[in-house]
Fold this protein.
Amino acid sequence: MRWDGWGERPGDGSFPEAGLRMLGDELGLSGRRTPPVPLDEVGVAQSRLPDAARAALTEVVGADRVDDSREARIRHSAGRSYPDLIRLRAGDAAVAPDAVVSPADHDEVAEVLEACADQRVAVVPFGGGTSVVGGVEPLHDGFDSVIALDLRRLDSVSVDRTSLTATLGAGLTGPEAEARLQSRGLTLGHFPQSFEFATIGGYVATRSAGQASTGYGRIDELVVGVRASTPAGDIETKAVGGTAAGPQLRELLVGSEGVLGVITEATLKVRPLPRERRYEGWSFKSFAAGAEAFRSMEQAHAAPDVARLSDEEETRLAMAMAGSGSAAERAGKAYLKLRGHERGCIAIVGWEGEPDDVERRRSLTRSVLREHGGVSLGSRPGQSWQRSRYEGPYQRDVLLDHDVMVETLETSTTWTDLLMLWGRVGDALRMSLGERGTPALVGAHISHLYPHGASLYFTFLARRETGAEIEQWRAAKGAACDAIIAAGGTITHHHAIGRDHAPWMTDEVGELGVEVIRAAKRRLDPAGIMNPGKLLPDEEG
């Protein structure tokens, strides 16, 4: 991934000119362009890795795998959160790690952790670098030096076709894992928006959810076994169907975000590669009507694998940016207006599997959606979504060039509280940004369904406050997170805690819950070297 944004090269992303004009009008943009500074102008401090630590690490992985070059350190200095990108684009990599260390396998990971504990060097596990919550920021947190532990060489694959499981190395990216599974006629079915660059270890360490998780399940539902190296030793859980042997250590490691140790491989459920995929669009008169349809669909066991419902504002923005002015588009708008859906909400639903099963489940889904006033839009919206499903991060880079603040956050709650939480978070974002003189556009969608509730994924856009971008972001993020907690939602559904959500961790699990995690960290990471400053709130005093 390129050092200053998403994709592999500058210019990978695009944004419709009509959409830019609309945002310019509604957000009050000046038309100014602010591209990232060149790589050779990025400020980086000198490496502070002590000679003794360098020698110990070199003995484990070899001299060429302890990289303290300027570019390597910059590329491992941040994830892809809004504050990360603002700092990088401005040429600030002051928090870059002191070196990038690349072990070859589990045993080398264990030896690296031992050396770092002995030398008091902080360790930040690094996969694809796609965290959007500050999860890979190389914080020193009292240590003289910090390394990024690049796990990309941990790329093993072992498949048990009979049990339908695959044991995958933590450093495999989503496309690499899928290619190697699909060559065996299998799929993990996990396709988050970060799929192109995120890794298996990152999925598991953050409890990731894919775009088809309503059908396939979140990553934590797919994990049957995990192997991890901690400064205190190794933990490996059995990849069996079930066990009653006490609280599950697997659950302690899944979602641990690198603060306890390093997940080196995971055994995951896989499925036969689907022979058919069908995606289509539907319209509802309102977000409330669509949400009720989705609730009924899920509770009637009629949900598809992909289920996504945009609210009115997200639908308006999406349609404005996708508009072509064609005769077919005009006819479609006229049809929706005739049906009372002129200001309605778009849903995308999709099924994957054997053709007969896809058709059976599709019939069940469509029946429920029609009962709740849904209007079928056919396959074209679904095909369009499938083509563009990974475009969001690329488009964000383009908007940043145009001085647009664009950020996302997500939560989940019960069906009872879903509309209340949706309203309060949207209001909090609009009020926070409006008070700063930067009116916001706020849209949201439902994207993961459960019998008792669903997730809500918000996107908000505003004019960037030049020179105060981080303060502007912090005010909006804080207002939204406070509103989520007050409304009873979870502080994160699938982006993890990282650094950005840590202040709300006590609200999420309680003071005793935080202390339980701290106790596990003290036992597994006695020197406190693992991913400092993440997951847990700062200790008072």
Summary: The domain at 43-152 is CATH 3.30.43.10 (Uridine Diphospho-n-acetylenolpyruvylglucosamine Reductase; domain 2). Residues 55 and 392 are 42 Å apart (CA to CA).
